[in-house]
Amino acid sequence: MKLSTISFAVAAVAALASAPASASLLSQFNVPVANTMFMSGASALTGSLTAVMAKLCTGGSANVRTLTIGGGTSDGRVFVCTTSGVAGAQFAGPFALVKRDTDGSFAGVGPVISQTNLLRWADINSCTATNCTLDTTTPIKPNAGLTDVDTNVWVGSASTGALSIPVPALGSTQAFGGFAGQGFGVMVSEELYKAMQTKQKAEGRLASTVVVGDYTPGAAQPSITKEEYTAIIDGNNFAYVNNGALSGDANPVNLCRRVETSGTQAVSNAFFLNNPCAAASPTNGFVAPKSVDLVNSPTAVVFASPANAVTGNYDDFGGAFGLFEGSGTGDARNCVIRRNNGNNPNNVADPALGKYAIGWISLENAPAAGWKYIKIDGVSPDAYQVPVGSAADGAVADGWAQDSTRRISTIRGQYPVSPEFQMLWPNGSAFNTFFTKLKDTFSDPTALNTAGIFQANNPALGSTFAAFPTQVHKGTRNGNFCAPQVLAE
Q: Crossing angle of helices 263-273/151-160, nearest 10°?
């Protein structure tokens, strides 16, 4: 017994000794504070930063380390180049980019323009070789920001009420848009997917041979019209979700959206509700989105991790239907997934509101168990049509090819939702050279090839659809999401 106890004690000491030591980025990777940059904003681009950093780091990806924050990726990541910057990338030695995802795209706009301090960054003085501690108390000004939609959308959203936070004028901040972008799509719970298949087969919108429960994108994939989804998210329309227009029955369709500061939500507002794009007087053709009223609604609640399974605001509107505003993309996804079992976003049984859920998500996200993409106006975000029997991409006899890149129909100008990113940083920034190179790398199809993300059409840079038919869009919005998509090829 004593020997067993001793052996366990020795093993415990050995495990403790082998655990990675926590230290600063300087100690771990020789990155001085002067070579550490802080960027806030769109979480959609965080996954691509590893590839971009590899392009800007001498020796490429072998010398790039990607660290989690607080043991996960909800609050962002830390990207470290352990060598030096390539020519034109500013740094003669190791450097790091700390990316903050909390609060979404808006944190890449307002706080960058006003140079306001933000909390919830990686603690660069407490990192292992794979993770940095989450620091929730030290205020830090972002050196740069990223946003899914241009600053004018955020300014207009504040004036129309879709965003309750004022947006400062650009002033001495540089803003660069139109270099790359991504598509967004409607996601639904698998239970709603099957109900839509059944209804659309009966209506002749899907072939009679479609097997209900076939989740293969393409011929079997149900579709929603722009008008139908608009009716669901319209803040003045609460009846549509219960009248069976989508499902064929009277069960409510619950909405799982993002918070107002999310670029994902801003894209939805602009595309479906003309908010703020149609705010010009006297037409004022914009609509306010449905939202949770934490002040006046007796049934509205706040879910906050770690006490809850999700983070965000929720209201069931007296049992009419559930509306969830998720802090992160994962929260919105979980809201949809949990509805399949009749649970609310916090994974608590809620059978009265059924098993149907719908939401809006960026196409960087691959569909998974519990949720799937559907078409918009008959166009799929993750499949595209080819001649029947074509060998292109392994197409089958139904004439649809699967698209794991989730951008082919987008860059062909067939799929309608393709906002372009914007990057911001203050004039006179000490990191101007690096951020310029970072932006240019995002626009380079030879450097970045991430699912869901495309490069904007720019013949001057050699970025054309003809040269890169699976990556570069046929046209561009020139960085203005309220402008129409104009094709150049």
A: 70
